[in-house]
Fold these 4 entries.
Entry 1:
Amino acid sequence: MRFIDYVKNHNRSLVYPFLSNIGIKLTGYKMQEVYDSPQKQLDVAKAIDKEFGGDFIFPMGRGTLTVEALGIKVRRPDYDFPSIVENPIKDLETLSKLKVPSPYEDYGMIHSLKSLELISKNFNKPTVEFIRGPFTLAIELSGADIFLRAIIKNPDFVQELLKFTTQVVMDYAKAASKTGVKMIMFTEPSAVVLSPKKFDQLVAPNLIKIMQVIDNDVWKTLHICGDTTKFLDGMLKCKMDGLSLDQLVDLSAVAPKIPRDTVLFGNLDPVYVLKSDPPQQVREKTLKMLKDMKDYPNFIFSFGCDCLPDTPFKNLKAAIESSKIKR
């Protein structure tokens, strides 16, 4: 079933809340022990679903998965997402020393695949996997300063690094699509710095290439942080089944530009609304968004990005519960 058909087959608005980091507050687990245990990933997914009841299920997010598989050092806090410590790939010579990891041999990827399989078997709701895109992975490997300067001064390095990161992402995405997941959401937060022309050159072609190896019955979606209005056309060229837009994007302005067979996610502010407003205002702003988007049957209520770890539960419940209204 196409994603758009799945959305339209419901008589109420669906809700897709970014909630993965809330799970450790519900279970008391530390972040790394969840990553290392498919059973604890399932525990977290069950706890989130029981507490908040969204329409999609996902494991604890691990944006550094592909970086760690390449042997790059990361910082692993107990109660927050891992972060990169170094950016060692500075030139073609250092790049040549890297090897594309096998999803079935790397320790972290193996556990991620097992987690996806276990979660998918235990829920009737669609399971979602988040995968960092090749452009953002390239910046993580080389550092933003090096990579962005190289776009102008050293295009051969840029092309080779993107060729490498595209293969890394492609291999993992292909393996993930065979675990029983129903959706893969590619995230390209670093792409927001690009011009529309550079987005079309450096981001879209590689995402399109990756989608071609993913099972046809798995929905492909894209999320980019920040105001992506300037390259919305480029995002649409990727032919994703759905686009997730940050809170900085004016949904009412861009919704008419989204094809009706493309699902549109968005985009309650996770910082200044979900974390900061009282529950009644969260509810009111959620209902206003749904009212503004009532003429778009391809719309799914969501947050602009992942909610902050200290977001009040009562605010999350206010948003999720008030979003489940009949069409």
Entry 2:
Amino acid sequence: MIAEPFTYYEFFAGGGMARAGLGEGWRCLFANDFDPKKAASYAANWGGDHLTAGDVWAVPPETLPGRADLAWASSPCQDLSLAGRRAGLSGARSSAFWGFWRLVEALDRSGRAPRLVVIENVSGLLNSRGGADFSALCETLARQGYWFGGLEIDASLFTPQSRPRLFVVAAREPPPAELCLAGPQEPFHGRRLTAAYDRLPPAARARWRWWSLAPPPLRNLTLADVLEPDAAVAWHSRQETARLLAQLSPAHRLRLDGALAAGGRRVGALFRRMRVEDGARVQRAELRLDGMAGCLRTPGGGSSRQFLLVAEGGEVRTRVLTPREGARLMGLPDEYKLPARSTAALHLVGDGVAAPVVRHLAERLLEPLLSHASALAAE
């Protein structure tokens, strides 16, 4: 007998990277994103049957079909401010998360509360406004009757990209003991998360669970493994490369010189940062040669654009990371359809969730939680 797939709503869906990670054992009931370009990419890859493009505040609760096993929300990183709690459409981006949450509240009132809720955001949420925003989120989940806990997962465990993210997993039914730990444990419960837990009020702490999540097998993929062939991409001119290398700090220049002296082929990631040196703001290029890319970001200039550097035969070449390479760093297959324009494609992948992280989370925690809930309901 073939098991029925788990069902889910995907909010702030972007190009459907959470959907890519959940995989074939899950069925989407509803998806939503405000950005028409991202919604177009979602439809191009997954079809538009369950997709509603537009502001989450404009979604009527009654249009959400059935009772989903999971409501996934990868809300924009600035959207959990307390200021947006009831701002509605007038609150714009600062209230998007609360637009999602009022749907969860409405579903609960009609007896259709999602069995699981996953809220994915940048790890900076743990310290936002001195921890007040994270505490507000946890109190909200506790008031709604969920058991919940946080996990900090870096995509670098799965793909050659440094991308730490916070995942708050909330369960409607009391979770089984085998999915919970007695206390925080590395690598998914770091000091920031522990400190954020310590700041929670007693009512929220009573509902907190330290989720047990097994680490994945060791990653064997490096940055060099996801790159296009040298002849298939456009490289910077010598002058452009020289200008970029001139922004290296002395320490990073020594790092590059060491790679050149070692010989062979070395592939590195290069990205720019504004630094304060002797009281002045200076733009610096920072180089990493550890086989990893820096965190992909939405392209807007400054530190957002990531470059690649290849040191080989005593020479250095540089270029911009391509959208397809960015998609591979997010764990997306080459069959995934990207926007034709590079900027739009880089924006899409830089604003998403790494698919292998979602798959691991689903396999090792979400699906066991749902199986446990189903067993309780059958008793």
Entry 3:
Amino acid sequence: MPKTGQLIAIDQGTSSTKGLLLDSNLRVLATVSKPVELDTPESGWVQQDPEAIWESVRLAIDELSAQATEEILGLAITNQRESALAWDVATGKPLSAMLGWQDRRTAGRVHEFSEQQREAIRELSGLPLDPMFSALKFEWILNQIDADRSRSQAGQIALGTLDTWLVYKLTGQLAAEAGNASRTQLLNVATGEWSQQLAELFNVPLAALAPVVGSDAPTAPILAGPLAGKPVLAVLADSHAALYAHQLGSGATAKATFGTGSSIMALSRKPAAADSGLVTTVAWSIDGKLTTALEGNILSSGATVVWLGQLLAKSPAELDQLAQSVGESASEVNLVPAFGGLGAPWWDADASAIIDGMTLSTGQAELALAAFEAINLQIEDVLAAVDNATGQRLPAINVDGGPTSNLWLMQQQANLSQRSVVKNNVAELSATGVAALALKVVGIDLGDYRADNSSFEPNLETSSAVARQASWHAALAKSRMQRSN
């Protein structure tokens, strides 16, 4: 008989660590959220304190464990991706800040690679050379703490993404979940193994990298705290966990996660072409089998609204009301949020943030609308790239993430994309997704699980949507013409 019991799922994100206590039917019994801080010591630098993140996770586990009413089967972890750090293997002490996925301090290094090297990196890793991915971060960190690579080559320094750091802190085991590992740009995406060639290109010793493990590979026992003796049952990167949940609940094979940035992911056996604007990533490794996906990452979506709110001294809710007050006859204003370049489908690290189309009549409301529409229009650009790559138009897109609670924004997405938008109403979908995988690991069948969804249909004329997209693309062209000296 399958086990029954309860499960703790941790979702460690950019701005907070969230935790869920769930039963064996994926019902949420309790939630907790611990804020975590971002530090931006220089322009383009984004980093966090690894110990503060660990402490937030530890506290979340403690609080949820105290509320459990049945045996806790184990822990499941989902996490922000690409963020990278180094630590001392012997002491477990961090040797660097955690460089966030938004960090652009390595942007200049990109230009030092030859075209041949860039092509090799893309072919092996599935990813274009870009500061978002972990490899350049690892190289930069080692240049600061181990310039001659003697300690990292000796295995005295560990390099890892957040999943590896948390598993190490919990269990003392070094393990890199395959989906997260694929975001480092050091994994051969076809084999699911670290690539010696990529490691040499980035001057990152393989001895500093944890062994790659399956998403459903239980860890060694947790060493201390209320879950001592229990394993981490499953690990999935946040966007991957959301797709897993969408697939479980409704059979969806593509989704868009709205957040600080946004991730659009579609399961695909076919790798992304170099000119598609998409990347190939490992979605997960389950039962020893790699599942790959096409993905497009948007660097600034919800962050754009936060930035504008700070500039105008308005809350996101106040900006939302301002945006909704704009009439259809208002002039079109485009805010291209290339604060650190543009991600998918353009992958232009040199693009500049601009506001285009302003007149003397432009006010706070028009700027607010432009900020929200920048989210919708960037997502539609990636969806169009998925259409082109697969040869099929996605008639509907499943969505999740905090901003999807804004129903007006979801209707705007349906209108500007001219597609159905299917919103999953589970508030913490990534945590739910990795929890579902963890329950599978212990033999609990969720075959009867059904998603709680809401749907939005386009109510804007197609010609109007096309015209709005054309205006946006004209602004994008101007953004990409701007170059720093």
Entry 4:
Amino acid sequence: METTSARPVVVGPGGTGVAAHVGLHALCAFADRLGLGDELSSAIPRPRERAPLHDRGKVLVHAMAMLAGGGEACSDIEFLRSEQSLFGFVPSDSTLWRTFHEITPATRDEVKRAIANVRAEVWRRSSATTGSEPVVLDVDASFVEIHTEHKAGTGPNKDGYGFHPLLCFADATVELLSAMLRPGNAGANDVADHIVVLDEALAQLPGEIAHGHGVGDEASLVRRDVVIRADSAGCTAGFLAGLRARNVGFAVVARSTRQITEAIFSTLGHEELSVPAVRQDGELREGAAVMELTELVDLASFPEGTRLIVRREPLHPGAQQSLFPSLDYRYWGRYTDQDGDPVALDAFIRAHAHVEEHISRLKDSGLCRFPISNLEANRNWLMVLAAAADLVRWFQLLCLDGALSRARPKQLRWSVFHAPGRLVRSARREFVRILDGWPSAEALLTAYRRIALIT
């Protein structure tokens, strides 16, 4: 019986014929097939008259691969530079750092438009985006602590000091459609910020979906409904008016008010007004109930057609009371302009909790680190980080199956992105043989076959 965890071998420099990060090569090959590098190259002007040594579109794709592999700083690009046989001529960390500083706000807008063009192609190919159901967008903010006060654009927060980015995700695909880098003390319910993030998210949707969702568009122009879900930060008159002006539906968490408290109080003892609530899987939620209180509150300040849905659950020890002071139940309220059964709407609105997992994915993929002091460069870092997260999701949607198509970043890195292989040269061609016994070798080979079919 062996009692040691490592075999005695002699380790030294000079290894050849070995390929690391084979899965990241697949990710870059996938990006090339989608034309992502070409789109980015056309969006970024040359920083000087003579063409740079590294095409800036290629630099950003390599940066996305680095972030997908777990990189958190420009210097992490060096781990791809050592794999020239797989990734070609990879930029240095100084070139990557310089690229983040070269991109201006105007160029950033062009880059986002380029990413939207590629996204439209992915949505055309993915079954997750087909059908006629509303496209659901989730808006939320998350604090990112920065352990220095010397980075521009940071600020204090009750949780520390850093940034407080506002994010908007597509629920069906877990893509980060838009992100705004804000100081830590940015207001949670800032209407202007929410509108900017909304407009950028709508601009990322394919044209046939975004059609009719411009400011002032006639409702008859809408080809596919879009619905925004948000917590109480999105429950402002200005934001809801902005949504209605863009023909976008809403489902937002209600803040505690006197009239909501009075409405709930008036329902006490009238159990016939409540209906058993359900979980996300459609099964009954024991002890929970849903009530519609639209007729019991004044909604004149809300967009026409707004409804108030209230859910109650048994108050477990330690839980905080919310809308109504009760010793037996905890209450949540949501405003929505969507049609349908209150129970189904309650389950739909509660699914906004998915956004916490989406943000957790980002924090596993570089969101916790803004490695540059310059604010504009960090905004560019956030843009590329978002594009990297989306590239990974596209790869999962189109190239992977089963658990890997839903895997979190850590599992993808262990099983796919950092898969090792052996370089073999034969008949003037280079082959990569994935390590025998690698658990996800077949999934990676299947991904390569699917990449080859993309035209």
